[in-house]
Amino acid sequence: MSNQMPFGGRTPSNSATMPRGEIVATYDSYVEAQTAVDRLAHADFPVAEVSIVGSDLKTVERVLAKQSYARAAISGALSGLWLGLFFGFFLVILQPTGTSLPFIAAASLIGAGFGMLFRIVTYSISRRRRDFTSTMQVIATSYSLVVSPDVANKARNLLEAPAV
């Protein structure tokens, strides 16, 4: 029962191990590697034998904007609004009445208020340590296609052939 997932799903037998085989091509971006796998798939290559392996992982944090109380309030209100809408619709589905629209509006406003308050408080606490907003990604510097040795030459030939 080692390859069982919660709720009865099964994991592939090779999901937690590094793929073994030969590197048939290396690309600078994930999109290029995906395009190569698509080319192999269109040529009726057994793509179950292919793995895309990212190497030299790096974290990249892109700074989006300077943080301020106004930005914190707006982003908190918007995220709270979505949460309030969700709970409003959820509760209306559980108990529909003729007054469901005002109930949804009230839940949305309450959610926006709590979201704004929470975001302003958290910004006030962390203000001097982090005065900007950003997104973080983990990216690889190269992506290699690894295939089993018995089909490696076929994959190389298909990838070296001019695209049709």
Describe what this molecule looks like in 3D.
The protein folds into two domains: 64 residues; 63 residues. 46% of the residues lie in helices and 24% in strands. The protein has four helices and three strands; from the N terminus they run βαβααβα. Strands 1-3-2 form a three-stranded antiparallel β-sheet. Keywords: Membrane, Transmembrane, Transmembrane helix. This is General stress protein 17M-like domain-containing protein.
Strand order of the largest sheet: 1-3-2
Number of strands: 3
Q: Tell me the distance between the termini.
A: 45 Å
Whole-angstrom Rg:
25 Å
Return the string of H and E elements. Answer: EHEHHEH
Number of domains: 2
Mean pLDDT: 86
- Helix fraction? 40-55%
Topology:
Blueprint: E1 22-27, H1 30-42, E2 50-66, H2 69-94, H3 100-126, E3 132-147, H4 152-160
Antiparallel strand pairs: 1-3, 2-3
Helix pairs in contact: 2-3
What is the gist of this entry?
It contains four helices and three strands. It is α+β, with helices and mostly antiparallel strands and 164 residues long.
Question: Any key phrases for this structure?
Answer:
2 domains, elongated, alpha+beta, three-stranded antiparallel β-sheet, 164 residues, disordered N terminus
